[in-house]
Design goal:
Layout lengths: L11 E5 L4 H14 L7 H11 L3 E3 L4 E3 L12 E15 L2 E15 L3 H15 L2 H9 L3 H12 L2
Parallel strand pairs: 1-4, 3-5
Antiparallel strand pairs: 2-3, 4-5
Helix pairs in contact: 1-2
């Protein structure tokens, strides 16, 4: 664990077969809730926020999504991550009429508003590393995925 968030193998799902953004978001929120990171109000709040403020981001190789919601729904900070066998559609951040084929989804449980910008900056730095993101998208080792994410997000 670092000072910004918790990330462990229980919060990661590799090569997940999801058919929709709701399915993958629900699954990852379930992992967070099982670990005590979020309140039961988190998932409905994330799904509702995603309708108004979508979080899909097109990258060079493929899209990602970063669903999140307000800190009042979070007990302690964490990130839950899924790589997807086949991308699912998220609406594009800043352009909700456009869609993004997301291959990796990061559900963010941010407990302090002041740390949201720091976490988002770290994620954006990671997203610019096309080679690392592509490698991550094909990983099958949970230990390796945690190591890569911890290394990249703790810089």
């Amino acid at each position: 664990m670092n000072s910004l968030f918790e990330l462990d193998e229980q919060l990661i799902k590799l090569q997940f077969e999801a058919s929709s953004r709701e399915e993958v978001t629900t699954y990852l929120a379930g992992r967070l809730e099982a670990g005590g990171y979020i309140k039961s109000s988190f998932l409905p709040a994330v799904l509702e926020r995603e309708k108004t403020y979508p979080t899909g981001l097109p990258l060079a190789a493929f899209g990602v999504a970063i669903p999140h919601t307000d800190p009042e729904h979070v007990n302690k900070p964490a990130i839950s991550v899924a790589t997807l066998k086949e991308p699912v559609i998220f609406h594009k951040m800043g352009s909700p009429d456009e869609t993004v084929q997301a291959k990796i989804v990061f559900v963010l449980a941010i407990s302090e508003p002041s740390k949201q910008l720091v976490m988002l900056e770290k994620l954006m730095t990671l997203f610019r590393k096309e080679e690392v993101m592509t490698k991550l998208s094909y990983m099958t080792s949970y230990e390796e995925a945690v190591d890569v994410l911890q290394q990249e997000l703790n810089q």
